[in-house]
Fold:
Amino acid sequence: MLFEAPALDDVELGIIGRIDGVRHRLRHELYEPRRWRGLLRRLLEADSIRASTGIEGHHVSRDDAVASVDGAERFDASDPDWAALAGYRHAMGYVTQISDDPHFSYSDGLIRSLHYMMMQHDRDKLPGLYRPGPIFVGDYEGPASETVPGLMRELAERLNEAADTSPPIVQAGMAQLNLLMIHPFKDGNGRMARALHTLVIGRDGTLDPRFASIEEYLGLHTPSYYSVLAEVGGTGWAPERDARPWIRFVLRAHYQQANLMEWRIEESGRVWAAVARVRAESGLDERNMGSLFDAAEGYRVRRYRHIAYADVSERVASADLRKLVNLGLLRPVGERRGRYYVASEHLLSRVAEARTFRPQIPDPFGSV
Structure:
C-alpha cells in the first residue's frame, strides 16, 4: 500500500487549470526558434541542480553550477560539493533524455540506476542499492528494509498505470511523496525523489523538464518543504495518512515557479535585445552575443565557453575577448588559465533598463 492522492476539490482543480495555462504559454514561447533560448535552458538547468544539491547541504556558486552543466573546470567548489553537483547533473541529463522517449516505462531498476548516477562518487552511501537496515529522518522512521523492494516495485507499477487519470502534477507530487516516505536508500533520497518528480512532470510532454522543475522553489522554501513532509509523514510509515497538505504545497510550488519562469523568460528576452543593441553599436560580430549575454546575466565568462558558442578557434576567441575588453564591455579577472571575464559597469548600465524587480507572486490558495 502507498500514499493515495486526495480527491481534488474545486479550488485545487482551478489552480491546476491556471498552472496549465501558464505552462502552455511557456511552451509557445520556448519553442520559437530564438538562439538565446538555448543559453537560457543551460542557465536554468544549472539553477535547478544547484538548488537540489543545496537542499542536501552541497552549496556552490551559480558559476560553478554552470561550469558543471558545461562539463568544464570548476571555479571554487569543494571536492564533495563538486562531486555531488556532477552526479546530480548526470542523472538529470538522463531524465531530460528519456522524458520524451516513446519506448519508456518506469521500473525500480530505473530509479536505482538514477540513484547510482547521483551517488556514485560516495560508495559508502551504497549508490544504486536499497538500504540494508532501518532509517530515521528527524522523528520519522522509514518502513522496514525488507519491505522496500516490494514498495518500490509498487511505486513503479502505479506510475505505469494507464488507469491513473489524475493530473500529471498530482502524479508527480505523489511519486515524490511516496519515494520520500519509503526512503529506500541510505542517502540521496531527497535528490532522487525530486528527480522522479521532474521526470513524471516532464513525461507529460508540455514542457522540457528543465522548465517544468520546481527544484528552485524547493531550494528557496526548504523549511516549508520539510515542515509539510513532517506533517504528512508523521513518525513512521503510515500510507493511510492524508496527503492533501503535500499536494497543496506542490500545487503552490508549481504555480509560483511557472509564473516566475514566465517572468524570467520575458526579462531574458529584454536583456538579449539590450545586449544586441550594444553589440550592433560597437560593430561587433554576432558571435560575441553569447559571452555578452552571459556576462550581462551576472555570470563569469571563460574562453572555452566563447569558443563553444561562437564556434571559433582558440586564437580567434582570445582576440574576440580582448576586443570586448578594449571596448569596455568586459573586464578581465585573473591571469592565464585562471582568467575569466565579467560584465563592465558600462555593459551593466546598458542592460539595466531591461531589468524588472522579481515579481511577488500571490499564493494561489489565498486565505483558503
Notes: The mean pLDDT is 94. The longest strand covers residues 330-333. The beta strands are 136-137, 140-141, 330-333, 340-343.
